[in-house]
Design goal:
The protein is mainly alpha-helical and about 220 residues long. It is built from eleven helices and three strands, in the order ααβααβααααβααα.
Length: about 220
């Protein structure tokens, strides 16, 4: 009984920490990716142009508003890549999780980098929108930056940190793919063989007892 209890304890899976739960981690990655994507739908830059340049539009709006999708076009695509990677991690095997982690990390770094460029040089990021609105490129105008590029940097940074947790958290996740199941198969088979080997001597002893009593072994 003692050996059996020890075997059961050794095969019992450890308790999964809260941060390592698959549903929790995938949800966090999805929320952060959607948050980064959501910032691009908002105004990142407000360009204050001369009414002579902007024309009648200057009277109807307080400056030229540049959304994040135009100020940093790559953020939208990278956020969607990170979202897809987070969802794929929930069904991926061990090796695939390493690849997915690298993809999400690169996407997060790209989000942070693109938003940081806008914060460092907002005028250059707004030049395309200025040229489209006025037909004049290279204008020297005042550009105000909203809070959304900063939020994109924060979301991208947290997204990268969350991606780093995929690999250690995956050790607690149940086997989902046939490759992982195949790897676990030999171990389970060896354990079953060991149990049968221990059970065999008991059967032999019982047979010898019957023979010694003159009983029919059948």
């Amino acid at each position: 009984m003692g050996e059996r209890e020890a075997a059961v304890k050794s095969t019992t899976r450890p308790a999964v920490p809260g941060w390592a739960r698959k549903s929790t981690l995938v949800l966090v990655i999805a929320v952060l990716a959607l948050a980064a994507f959501g910032t691009t739908t908002q105004t990142w830059l407000i360009v204050h142009l001369d009414p002579a340049q902007l024309g009648a539009a200057a009277a109807s709006q307080d400056g030229l508003q540049v959304p994040g999708s135009k100020a940093a076009t790559t953020v939208t695509a990278l956020a969607l890549v990170a979202l897809a990677g987070g969802l794929a991690a929930s069904i991926a095997g061990r090796v695939a999780r390493w690849l997915i982690t690298a993809i999400i990390l690169l996407a997060a770094a790209g989000i942070v980098g693109a938003a940081a460029v806008v914060l460092a040089d907002p005028l250059s990021a707004a030049q395309g929108s200025i040229a489209a609105a006025t037909g004049i490129s290279g204008s020297r105008v005042q550009v105000d930056v909203t809070v959304f590029p900063v939020l994109a940097v924060v979301a991208g940074s947290l997204l990268g940190i969350s991606a780093l947790l995929i690999v250690p958290a995956g050790r607690y996740w149940k086997t989902r793919t046939k490759y992982d199941a195949a790897a676990a198969g030999p171990t389970a088979g060896a354990a079953a063989g060991g149990t049968a080997a221990h059970a065999a001597p008991a059967d032999e002893i019982e047979s010898w007892d019957r023979l010694s009593r003159g009983d029919d072994p059948t």
